[in-house]
Amino acid sequence: MPSALMTTYQHLPVAFTHGTGVWLWDANGNRYLDALAGIAVCGLGHAHPKITQAICEQAGRLIHTSNLYEIAYQEELGKRLTRLAGMDRVFFGNSGAEANEAAIKLARLHGHRAGVEAPVVVVCDNAFHGRTLATLTATGSRKAQAGFEPLVHGFMRIPYGDLSALETIAQHEHEVAAVLLEPIQGEGGINLPPDDFLAQVRRLCDERQWLMMLDEIQTGMGRTGKWFAHQHSGITPDVMTLAKSLGNGVPIGACLANGPAAALFGPGSHGSTFGGNPLVCRTALAVLETIEREHLAERADRVGAWLREAFTTRLDHLSGVTEVRGRGLMIGIELQRPCAELVSNALAVGLLINVTADNVIRLLPPLITSDEEAGQLVDLLCPLIERFLAKDPAA
Fold it and tell me: Could you tell me the pTM of the whole model?
């Protein structure tokens, strides 16, 4: 019988029934080490007792009332997030794409209030910001955009990490209202910018009175070794977006704003029916408390450094490996040829990974990954890469 689902995904031939920590089990009882965490969503792993308790307790009390009324957990979560980020206000939606839509709307408002008739947002090659029409336009993938034209006007693109390109825009373009970028590109291939890039973008934004907007949807919530990846650079953005691991699987997105940007939205200028309801906010508070109590950002930094060193050492003799890179538990292993088949090969040995940008193995293990489990990840993946690279690519 044909599926009733639209064919927007090419599913792998496995269905999971339950999970604990970094492990998942399929319908046949097979166990898998999850090194993808639902694409950086399940930062606390599966069935974490504190998250399960928060969801169950809140579901038994109150799930939804709408934003026509005050929501105590939403207020509390807003205070916790803005304190951690050193920012002023937050808007809650349901996803990363919605958080980025809110950021783009803030940029438009900022530009119009500065007297710019057609505000422009500068974005980057190989970026990924979502699949709504505006966030798809901001995304730097022609493959993702194909067939959805006409795209949204008001975006200008530069190479990721190219400060000179941004400086050229600053000298010649007068309609720019904001710069939107990822501190580390995830879907684009775990790409890190030059060490001083974010600080220099901050300087240019200050000089030109542009909004500096950071998409921390994949990098946030401790994944890179700090609460937010931009904190490695010692800067604070004007706008920051979060989602993914903020709810550990419960759908929630957040758009934080600082300084003048925090006052741009007024009643009626933006909204969400489900955004910030009691269930998701109670869950997100439990996520924050767990990351803080268990020092998981620090753990991500330590275990991630060990993993990168271990992969580099184990794969150093292979000529087909370009680079092992990343920060914290956000790791990319770039090969010299497309390697999508490794996803199925890994599945067959009980390992969940992802390949992005055609030739980059993307690893996003849960922040709770133990030292032993990190070792198992290396021991499972490295032989797969060795066998793959030993094959004749023409075979």
Answer: 0.97
